[in-house]
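> Could you send the Transcriptional regulator prediction when you get a chance?

Sure thing. Input:
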Amino acid sequence: MVVDDHRLLAEALASALKLRGHRVLAAAAPAAGAADLVIARAPEVCLLGTAAPAEPGVFEPVVKIKRERPQVAVLVLGPVPSPRGIAAAFAAGASGYVRHDERIEGVERAIMKARAGEAAVAPQLLQGAFGELLNPAAQPDDEAQRLLSMLTPREVEVLVRVADGEDTRLIAAGMGIAPSTARTHVQRVLMKLGVGSRLEAAALAARTGLLDRAGPLGSGTD
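Output:
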């Protein structure tokens, strides 16, 4: 299945894949409801287009698809992403990332890898991600401010509690919210920070000095 906000792109890619012998269940361009469409049709592989991989919450459809249909392999189709954009896609559960300007042969190889349960991402994108993560361009204080600006006050509180080693139950009790709500907040924090685990989030917060700038717990609400 091919899902993209640009109908022409979705239909062109679907046609190209059909010509190469692939069975395409649907090609659609919904502004919303992409996840519901994929969940309803349950394809083996979904190519999910995005124009802004760095935007907060852009990979929430991936999270929903993987929660409801874990057997569906989701390949994100988008522009050249930042390293954190790649990390956020995989943290959400994507099986790979394919650039919009990739040749059809490259898209096909990514589909084959995703169907086989392998990570599908171009080596040069991984090299760029490792390069930036190992040698961050931003100074720690600048990075901390950038990360803080991405989070709501409630999410900052969640991150501080995660860094303190609190589990979901303790986070929920400390914030006076349901455990399911606490899990959702944690998931959003991981997505926005572009990390795949609570440990990585805590390490990133410590490395950038974010915790020192976060302020006291419970200082704000959504």
